[in-house]
Amino acid sequence: MNSTVIVFPGSNCDRDIAVALEKMQFKNKMIWHKETKLPKSDLIVIPGGFSYGDYLRSGAIAGKSLIINEVIKVANQGCLVLGICNGFQILTETGLLKGVLLRNKNLKFINKDVNIKVIDNNNKFLKKYKNNQILKINIAHNEGNFFTNKDHLKELNEKKLIAFKYCDENGEINEDSNPNGSIDNIAGIFNSKKNILGMMPHPERMIDNLVSNTDGTNLFSSLLN
Amino acid sequence: MEINEKLVKKHGLSLEEYSSIKRLLGRDPNFLELGIFSAMWNEHCSYKSSRKHLKILPTKGKQVIQGPGENAGVIDIGDNDAIIFKIESHNHPSYIEPYQGAATGVGGILRDVFTMGARPIALLNSIHFGSPKHFKTKSLLNGVVSGIGGYGNCIGIPTVAGETKFNSTYNENILVNAMAVGHAKKDKIFYSKAKGINKSVVYVGSKTGRDGIHGASMASAEFDENSEDKKPTVQVGDPFTEKLLMEACLELMKDNSVISIQDMGAAGLTSSSVEMASKGELGIELNLDKVPCREDNMSPYEMMLSESQERMLIILEDGKENHARKIFEKWDIDFVIIGKTTKDNNLLLRYKNEIVGKIPIEALASKAPIYDRKWTKKKLPKKKINSKKLNKLNLKDAMIKILSSPNHSNKSWITDQYDQMVMCDTIQKSGSNAAIIRVHGKEKAIAVSVDSSANYCKAHPLTGGKQIVCENWRNLISVGSKPLAITNCLNFGNPENPEIMGEFAECLIGIKESCEFLNYPVVSGNVSFYNGTNNKNIWPTPVIGGVGLIDKLTKPMNHLFKKDNSTIIIVGKTFGHLEQSVFLEEIYSDLDGQPPEINLNNEKNNGEIVLDIIKNNLVYAVHDISQGGLLVALAEMCIGSKLGANIRKPKKLGNIFEYFFGEDQSRYILEVDKKNLTKVEKLLENNNIFYEDIGYTQREKLEIEKEMTVDIKDLCEINNQWYKNY
Amino acid sequence: MKFSITITLKKDVLDPQGKVVQNTLQNLNFKNLKNIRQGKYFEIEVNNDDQKDVEKKIDEMCKKLLVNLIIEDYKINKIS
Amino acid sequence: MKFSITITLKKDVLDPQGKVVQNTLQNLNFKNLKNIRQGKYFEIEVNNDDQKDVEKKIDEMCKKLLVNLIIEDYKINKIS
Ligand SMILES: Nc1ncnc2c1ncn2[C@@H]1O[C@H](COP(=O)(O)OP(=O)(O)O)[C@@H](O)[C@H]1O
Ligand SMILES: [Mg+2]
Fold it and tell me: Rounded to 5 degrees, what are φ and ψ at B55?
């Protein structure tokens, strides 16, 4: 599998995701945002961080970069695209994913391990997880408060486009287990063709027992072939 | 502009100092030159009050590659790996504008570390606020914490440890100290010493604005006709630009283009150029028309004294200019050749085809004033405590009061606002005795911790100075690392007051004694004087930042109990020293008397054996006993582990408060599996280490025989309350 | 010419920031507060004398970058 | 009554956001752009009919909470 990580000025989880992809046997390339051609790839990752300092709106300026036009092109042709944290924000700004990520409801940056539940595994990203499986994954963001309109919310539910929801350790999905105020506790979503996944939690931080746990590895291994 | 007495004073220079300037120049300085002298000769840059005392610190050792004097200290951790680190204060700016003050503090210390060729791998901070009841404290705390997080999170370096304290001594003068730790290859370290004549001097980074122009001086309208819209402004940090600047510098440092490099910190362009020239014993010529400016009509004075952030000065090898320029252009960072090195040992400034300033480098550096200020010794306070009054109290109530106090509450309200995991090498986050960061791609790690004990230092500076080094060393030992070296941030009051100067001198003697004895040298540091207002000085607050090495990383060691029914041992003797303790402070608001004594022999022996025991995999958990004493330490071991402990009543000591809250030094609590107990005991006995078997771990409850029982769940609740409600 | 742009969240979009500010102000004893909404503000200076043309350009800037039309409304005003 | 507050950074204070936005717009081919500064905007609705009194209160809010007077300037306007 060939993967490509897009690096924007201010991306700062680019090395972390590269380490994870290589550990999982992807052949990975890093692409600087000023380049105008993407290498042939099966998976494109937009990493976490603070592209352009998160100035204006997080993800807004990266969403207007040259390379993004290429990403949009191949995404529409069915290439797999994964946006993590800032990457999710960028994907919503480009319109590849609908909805927006507002400021956390407590107006503070939040870094901690949270529980999320796999809502639908019938897709290329999550097939190695079980439905309703609870994962413990690290979040680190200022704007992770997912919001969208009623129609889109309906579509997300009807077409099974919700990837993860925040929950507690017993799998309860409620206000107490919602770290940032996201609508319906949504932590990650797909586009309607399910070739694009955007998520706030950081699976690349969960591949090494010395650092945390290995709850993130199945996301990457699902994508291998 | 005419230079008069008033203007000299506005620049923070005494009339004697002004006479020296005239003598060194052989003439009167012009306005620009006066500004430059004032920047270079102020306390912050010249260390004029502290230098004499700093000299006594031990700075050498097998592990030291670079001691104080460079942008940061460098130590050797084997396999061609080096760790580069330093701590710095940003106290006054943070009090004025907490968010930006703290943020730019983090930005500044990061530059000190990546200037030397290191990729920063961890951030730490020591923050001290006034009483929680003081009307400013809450917004200062909020602003400082989000400023520290705002900068570190954005640039993508984990903030992994620190300390947060409240005390009314900081009501009008908070402390914000930031420490950065970086990793470099031992054969790829960059220094600020210039070399070679006629080499290009390059300005990279943000444009120069009128930020923070040199405190005291510019505020008045008197010496500038347009002063109304030229007021000095607070520095605003731009972590995004810093991230690009850092990546560009690290990329440039991959080959051999850089002769020397220096960040622009306090006194910006002035101090960076003078420092490079002075270390290289040569001169430097700058063409100020070339300086990238953010505002129109900036004067040479403003350009030379601006403290705009995110800027660096680089001296390049011949012919490398275009190669370097390309790298900075890739990262969208300004790159301008603004001057060259010269052989005539002057700082020469040109502007609009004129020479606007010419000062011998040595006049600004080696000939800057040094003071041997008067200082007085502090007597060891008399013992005062009357232990009879204690017996009316209930042990459990006292413990609860301490654990629910702002100083001893769980700090996750703070640490959740910091990205602790970015870079994916954080093996242990904050919350334990020290954080552990893996060296990327290797099986070894470093441990880091910052510590201070202002009340001990206030009561007896010499003992306090000794103690903080030891406490820091103990924290590193407790996570299984070998302590290698420290950096220190010396926050003190007004040095012109002999008592304050005495606190400074004696704390340093204490620091020196411990560092020497423990082979724990000082490799970098920072002095911050004049902390206080209107003759009210803060308590002496030296902060120690230590780095230790874990050469073979297996599982991180921390302070949380792991198993039911293992034996709990205290290493080190308990005498029951209560004076200056958290117990007396929280329960009786009593802070009289002397701090606990340090026996360096015991400190070293106990620490080395505990490290040995950890390395031999004989313990589940280790916690040093520090502020709060035995019971607070035990409670901390329970909180977060969901396990409790059953502790016997002490046999000998008469007073249980002395036993459970005494702050005798050099002690550790160990959780030992029963099957390893004889091995551990043997190791301790063979080395003549005093230890006590005090009980065992159990489920759910912390129990003291015949005295108290408390549910661990409740304990957690108690410990989490304060920040939640603040 | 100088223009200002004010960008506000659409009515049905949650404004956590505004809400927190409102609560804080109420705690600081400001009564009678009915509602607070927070937004962004830009001042743009342009080298161009054709006001119509400039306004069109600024409108374009808003649509292309400055405003997220899904959640935000905006207003342009000439200052000078 | 409804008021607006616009808060802008003082002249000479670095505006990293404005700078990045300006660069981006220039890259998006908006020429003639001289300068952009970013600020904050609040809309405040109050239950009170005494305009003088309300303005005083809002001014107080600015000074106490909304504005950092060291680096920011502000303006209050009545909207309705
Ligand atoms: N401002 C802060 N930033 C990061 N970590 C902090 C901060 N304040 C406290 N901590 C963390 O809280 C824990 C407890 O602090 P402290 O009681 O000072 O520990 P110790 O007594 O072991 O030095 C430590 O792990 C420390 O790193
Ligand atoms: Mg400790």
Answer: -60, -25
Instruction: Supply the residue whose CA is at minimum distance from atom 2 of ligand 1.
Output: B162
> Distance, in angstroms, between D9 CA and closest chain A CA?
15
Write the pLDDT tens digit of every residue in A27-38: 999 999 999 899
E-strand stretches of B424-540: 426-428, 435-438, 445-451, 482-491, 522-528, 532-533, 536-537
> How many C-beta atoms surround the C-beta of residue B266 within 10 A?
17
Active site residue ranges of B? 44, 90
- Residue A113, helix vs strand vs coil: strand
Nearest to B234 among D11, D16, D70 (CB): D70
| Three-state DSSP class for residue B286 | strand
Q: Which ligand is nearest to the CA of B447?
A: 1
The continuous run of DSSP H or E covering B21 comes out as: helix B15-25
- Selecting from D6, D34, D61 the residue whose C-beta is nearest the C-beta of C30 gives D61
Q: How far apart are CA A38 and CA A30, in angstroms?
A: 10
Residue B281 has phi, psi (to 5 degrees) of 50, 50
Chain C and chain D share a number of CB contacts under 8 A equal to 96
Tens of pLDDT, residue by residue over B429-443, are: 999 999 999 999 999
d(CA B177, CA B91) in angstroms, rounded, equals 7
What's the pLDDT at B2? 79
Q: Are B645 and B703 in contact (CB under 8 A)?
A: yes
Which residue out of B238, B302, B306 would a mutagenesis test of the D interface target, given it has the greatest number of D Cβ atoms within 10 Å?
Answer: B238
CATH number for the domain harbouring residue A186: 3.40.50.880
Look at residue B562 and give its three-state secondary structure.
Answer: coil
- For residue B500, what pLDDT is reported? 96
Are B209 and B334 contacting, i.e. CB atoms less than 8 angstroms apart? no
The pair of three-digit structure tokens given for residue B560, joined into one six-digit string: 């949380």
D20 chain-B contacts, CB cut-off 8 A: 240
Positive or negative, the Cα torsion across B339, B341, B347, B352? negative
As given in the structure block, the two tokens for residue B638 are: 């329970």
The domain locations on chain D are 2-79
For residue range D38-58, list pLDDT tens digits in order: 999 999 998 877 888 888 889
- Asked if A57 is an interface residue toward chain C (Cβ–Cβ < 8 A), one would say yes
Taking alpha carbons only, the member of B478, B480, B647 closest to residue B571 is B478
> How many independent structural domains does chain A possess?
1
Please tell me whether residue B448 adopts helix, strand or coil conformation. strand
- Secondary structure element (H or E) that encloses residue A134, with its range: strand A134-141
- Closest C-alpha residue for ligand 1 atom 13: B431
Domain that residue A80 falls in = 2-224
pLDDT digits (tens, 9 = 90+) for B100-140: 999 999 999 999 999 999 999 999 999 999 999 999 999 99
Count of residues for chain B?
Answer: 726
ipTM, two decimals? 0.92
Q: Which residue of A has its CA nearest to D28?
A: A64
User: Which ligand is closest to the CA of B426, given by its number?
Assistant: 1
Nearest to A166 by CA among A204, A138, A191, A197: A138
Q: Is A143 a catalytic residue?
A: no
From the list B331, B115, B326, the residue with the least C-alpha distance to B244 is B331
Segments in chain B below pLDDT 70? 214-233, 387-388, 391, 534, 653
Single-letter residue type at B5: E
Contact B557, B616 (CB under 8 A): no
| Distance, CA of A211 to CA of B425 (rounded, Å) | 6
Best residue for ligand 1 mutational test, from B145, B405, B411 (most atoms within 8 Å of Cβ): B411
- β-pairing, A43-46 vs A2-7, is parallel
Identify the DSSP state of A49.
B
| Chains B and A are touching, with contact defined as 3 or more CB–CB pairs separated by less than 8 Å | yes
Q: Which fold has domain D2-79?
A: Mth169; Chain: A , (3.30.1280)
